Amino acid sequence: MTPDVSVEQPRPRARVRAPELIGDAWWNTGGEPLTLAGLRGKIVLLDFWTSGCVNCLHVLDELRPLEEEFADVLVTVGVHSPKFAHEGGRDSVAAAVARLGVEHPVVSDPDMRLWQQYAVKAWPTLVVVDPEGYVVHVAAGEGHGDALRRVIGDLVALHERNATLRRGPNALDRAPNTGQPHATDQSHATDQDRPTGQGQTAGQDRTAGQPHATGRTAKRLDGLWFPSKAVVTAEGRVLVADAANHSIAEFASDAETLLRRFGDGERGAVDGAFDIARFAEPSGLTLLPTHIAERVGYHLLVADTANHLLRAIDLRTGAVRTVAGTGRQWRDGDDSGAALDVDLTSPWDVRWWDAAGGVVVAMAGNHTLSLFDPVEGTISRFAGTTVEGLRDGAATGTFFAQTSGLAVDGDRLWLVDAETSALRYVERAGDADDAGDAGDAGDAGDAGDAGDADDAGDADKTSESGGFVVRTAVGQDLFTFGHRDGAAGTALLQHPLGVTVLPDGSIGVADTYNGAVRRFDPSTGAVTTLARDLAEPSGFAVTDAGVLVVESAAHRLSPLDLGDDDAGGQVVDGAALVVRRPPTVLAPGTVRLSVTFVPPPGDKLDDRYGPSTRLEVSASPPELLVDGGGVGTELDRVVTLSGDVESGVLQVVAQAASCSSDEAVEHPVCRITRQDWGVPVRIESGGAAGLPLVMAGTPAG
């Protein structure tokens, strides 16, 4: 048993009263804001999330069964606390609520006031408030569905005995999802229509504030509904991953005439004919080379994101089948082997790459790249460690942060990392020196390293990764973003989701949260802006007639005006921005870092095969952490912080193993709980001497 973690829940010194709900605007409440006082008698589950965080999207799926099971006693409230500037706008929140089919109440927390009042330190964080208005459980990260079921079940039993539980539907349960917010401060009100931009083709006349196509509203299968990415066939047809319509739309070469749709528009995971198949928020698409397609019997590979699957489509017959994934989300364990036996996690994009001999998969859910071999039917880790951050070097030792878009340019694979707002590339180690002039921004990325990159160590690991290395062209770290053109080393993006090779050989970036298309010139290292005022661009389709931009929040494909090729776009000199999350002020010198983890009701920590907990601590810049870094087995540690470093990020990775405490069960169900924190800190004399983090448990008063 790990000495610093108690199996028994310690009794709080005092019950913690939940702060009242406040915010900028509300959705899904029938036109009125909610209060905890008005919800007294109900169990309230607060979900602190932000729309660009893939872990937050996972939690939305985990909560749906709980919301159904406890429908008469549980009220879930999403607290949208933004990481990026774009996410703080009402239009952005409205788009996210619609795109993701969120039907529980959502409050916008643009200034992160609720975040601070509830002492939240990570996206996502779940807070359970009991029927009397007290905080009784906090869980950071994802994978807490089963534990929450037990916590809520225990609360139901306790408060029914105490006659403090109120069963029955609320008025908000019957409120239609209009997509329109209730504004609590009209001085902040903005129009709900998304920008329309210049010209439009497929999927016209839709606004982001409209309701998602769920059981409450009619499906919209005559056009596009939050499309993600697109590809073009040899015959010129345009295939679009129509994410919120849970299907793949096929358009004629005019990109306007809808020819066929793969999937019936309902969320699900069903193989079969094109008109009965089902997907769940499909995102990425790639066409296989002809000789490969003939061998495997399908032409199109789909990253079926919310199903955690790769799906295959035979474009001749329309048949859909699953070729990789189990349908379970990967959390720990094997990530390589027979493709149908390996769990995946939110595959966001896919691209055939000859240099790798297969399909590279942007595995956004665990910040890695995988390699799928359609002929052998295998999948394996290709690059990344699952640590979220920005670190270059040998592919197996690199850090990514929500890999979201891929593009091939010969022997180089370009990718965008959404959470580090970065443009990066993969190539063979022997070609790396030739890429030094491509912005030379691999060094710029070092400022955001989640660990200390060792060049010698990277060289040793290059052979392990098949000789591939990862470099950064544009991007700095997890917390710096903006809209700035110029030299790649100082240029800034904001949560890009798409990338392509433009006709002139330069790289186009769908700079999603800036609403822009950016251009990177590998020969000069210069970044410019080609288009602005787009509605969350997330991908491209390069056709014989030009380039189409997938404007996700405008539900359309729009032609990209490249203008004068010699001009290369305009130069925007925007300011550097940082995440809205306030830093934690700590004192220099010794600081006590403690992680709370209490197993779910009915479980105990599992130390049968060694220590049940693990804690890893690092810092960026590394000089911030004088002592106490590295890996240990206790969830309580004293670290020493430098007084010479003004600010930085403490990166904490905690893990705990727990199993059923029923001694009569020979093979108990066990689970691994893991959480990564990147805590921005500011060092000041008089700052706090402790940093408490909650992975799961009840906070003490």
Characterization of the model:
- Mean pLDDT is 86; it is low at 1-13, 174-178, 185-218 and 433-465.
- Strands 1, 2, 3, 4, 5, 6, 7, 8, 38, 41, 43 and 46 form a twelve-stranded mixed β-sheet that branches.
- The protein has 701 residues and is mostly beta strands.
- 54% of the residues are buried.
- It is 10% helix and 37% strand.
- A hairpin with a 4-residue loop joins strand 30 (507-511) and strand 31 (516-521).
Which terms summarize this structure?
701 residues; mainly beta; twelve-stranded mixed sheet; six-stranded mixed sheet
Helix and strand arrangement:
Layout: E1 16-17, E2 25-27, E3 43-49, H1 54-69, E4 74-80, H2 90-99, E5 106-108, H3 113-117, E6 125-129, E7 134-140, H4 145-161, E8 182-183, E9 227-232, E10 238-242, E11 247-251, E12 258-262, E13 282-287, H5 290-296, E14 300-304, E15 309-313, E16 320-324, E17 337-338, E18 347-353, E19 358-363, E20 368-373, E21 378-383, E22 393-394, E23 403-409, E24 412-417, E25 422-428, H6 442-445, H7 455-462, E26 468-474, E27 480-484, E28 486-487, E29 498-501, E30 507-511, E31 516-521, E32 526-531, E33 537-543, E34 546-551, E35 556-559, E36 573-578, E37 584-586, E38 589-597, E39 603-605, E40 613-620, E41 625-627, E42 630-632, E43 636-641, E44 647-660, E45 670-683, E46 690-697
Parallel strand pairs: 3-4, 4-5, 37-45, 38-46
Antiparallel strand pairs: 1-7, 2-5, 2-8, 3-6, 6-7, 7-46, 9-10, 10-11, 11-12, 13-14, 14-15, 15-16, 17-21, 18-19, 19-20, 20-21, 22-26, 23-24, 24-25, 25-26, 27-36, 28-32, 29-30, 30-31, 31-32, 33-34, 34-35, 38-43, 39-44, 40-42, 40-44, 41-43, 44-45
